[in-house]
Design brief:
Blueprint (H helix, E strand, L loop, with lengths): L15 E2 L5 E2 L11 E7 L2 E7 L9 E9 L9 E9 H7 L2 E2 L4 E2 L4 H14 L10 H11 L11 H15 L8
Antiparallel strand pairs: 1-2, 3-4, 3-7, 3-8, 4-5, 5-6
Length: 177
Amino acid sequence: MGNAHKVSSQGSKSKSYGPCNEIEMDLRLLHVDQLKFKFVYVNRHPKLIVFERAPRYGDDPVVCIDLVYDTNVAERQINIVRFRGKTWSDVQRTMTEEGTRIYDLQKALGEVLTWCMQYQDDNKYYNQSSNNCRKFMLELCAFIDVTFPDQYYLEDQWYRFNHALSKNQSGSFKTNE
């Protein structure tokens, strides 16, 4: 993805975005300067949880960021980026693992929101091997300048190779003949 985002949360009258309105744009934490985050998992599905202070109580506010796909579509499954305000108890109810490391978020949450909206626009369809929740998390981590702690060896290169291969098969690359 390039640096020029087609979509901005500034100036938008809507309070949500995306094919299923799963990107919330009116969260209190968007206006907090120093945020932290950690990773949690729901049956190996990664989620990035953003917070102001480490959540301990059920009503502590967090922003939960992940990618899922629409299971109601039989043909091409649609990617759905979720950027949702939750309480810590909402997250705890479904999580099966919790990362132990807490990171400082080096980007403003508004920048992460805009990145998520752009990712939603640029990656419309889910593919189990080449455009999935892990690829989303790897790219999000690259954007916020951290290494995804659950990254497999050379996994980021696999996605880049797969992306280049799919472009080549669709005729986007020209050969020198």
